[in-house]
Write a structure and sequence with these properties.
333 residues; alpha+beta; 16 helices; 7 strands; 9% strand; transcription; HTH_AraC; AraC-type_N; Tscrpt_reg_AraC-type_HTH
């Protein structure tokens, strides 16, 4: 679902380089009508389109596609030019190779590489040249190149594994949306592993489709959650958007061809529960609707399955640290 929201950690992490470059990030958030609480409330979240706008604004303000995290700047348009250099390649391997060669022309650019490992291959990023304490840029590069590759061949590249050279962070629960695969931390390398067969696939895009693709990329690639085939993503799809018609756990288990007991156990293993999944989906749908003018707070409460607006108020404050009215007020400025 496009309505999946972005945790405030990624907002703070994205702004770290801009702050180091002297950009007034509080003013920037106000300019984008984002609540100031995003910077100091760990539970706060924003809509994907707001995150896209934030990324684009930071790139424009710094004139740097590395957002202040690199040793040098990456001038606006560098990513687009890299895409134009690779769009006529016959296969994904050739395209990625040419893109990596293009970035290799810049001495201070982070190094990306492909490393074959039997029937699989690693897409690796060397972050030794970055000043990136929250690992925001290195993770962004992995997301961008993985999702660019998926777009080029017209299908999602299913990940086998995601590895990170640094210890597991406090917000690692968010990684299932970014890197839908088993994750290893303190792994000695940072990269994504997938089947080698994708490298031989032909490109299905051309300059015409690339022009449209670049209108919102790579910011849109960062803001687009991808739960892949994870259990939580499957359940969210089964629940849908009508909170008043949600199936119960027994029905969901039947749809997934498993027993309720087994489903509960698998959810516990993923660190969540059926009720928590429903709460998270309600939260994301609430943020989606609050960013639009069509519904009153009472209407939103009813759509989310709350019998009273006051119950919605309390739940939203618990989920995000903000009241629904305060959140919407910043959208209307």
């Amino acid at each position: 679902m496009r309505e999946r929201t972005i945790a405030s950690h990624f907002v703070r992490a994205a702004l770290r380089g801009a702050e180091r470059r002297g950009l007034d990030t509080t003013a920037l958030l106000a300019e984008l009508n984002l609540p100031p609480a995003v910077l100091n409330e760990p539970r706060a979240r924003i809509a994907p389109e707001q995150f896209t706008a934030l990324m684009q604004r930071v790139w424009d303000a710094l004139e740097d596609e590395y957002m202040g995290f690199g040793r040098g700047r990456s001038k606006p348009g560098t990513f687009a030019m890299a895409c134009y250099t690779l769009i006529h390649c016959p296969t994904l391997e050739k395209a990625w190779g040419r893109g990596m060669m293009f970035y290799g022309l810049f001495e201070e650019a982070p190094k990306l590489s492909l490393e074959r490992d039997g029937d699989s291959v690693w897409l690796l990023v060397d972050d030794s040249r970055l000043n990136d304490p929250d690992h925001f840029l290195v993770e962004s590069l992995l997301l961008i190149w993985h999702r660019l590759g998926s777009w080029l061949i017209g299908q999602r590249i299913r990940l086998l594994e995601a590895a990170f050279s640094y210890p597991e962070p406090a917000h690692s629960g968010e990684y299932d949306l970014l890197f839908p695969a088993p994750q290893r931390f303190a792994a000695g390398r940072t990269g994504l592993r997938f089947q080698t067969r994708y490298l031989d696939m032909p490109l299905l895009q051309d300059e015409r489709t690339l022009k449209q693709f670049l209108k919102n990329s790579p910011a849109d690639l960062l803001a687009r959650p991808d739960g892949g085939d994870s259990l939580t993503s499957q359940i969210r799809r089964l629940l849908g958007r009508d909170c008043n018609q949600w199936p119960d756990l027994d029905h969901v288990a039947s749809q997934l061809h498993t027993s309720p007991q087994t489903l509960r156990r698998h959810l516990r293993e993923e660190g969540t529960s059926f009720q928590e999944l429903k709460d998270h989906l309600r939260r994301d749908l609430a943020i989606y609707h609050l960013g639009r003018d069509g519904l009153s707070l009472q209407d939103i409460a009813e759509q989310l399955g709350f019998s009273e607006a006051s119950a919605f108020h309390r739940a939203f404050k618990k989920w995000t640290g903000l009241t629904p009215g305060a959140y919407r007020a910043h959208q209307d400025i």
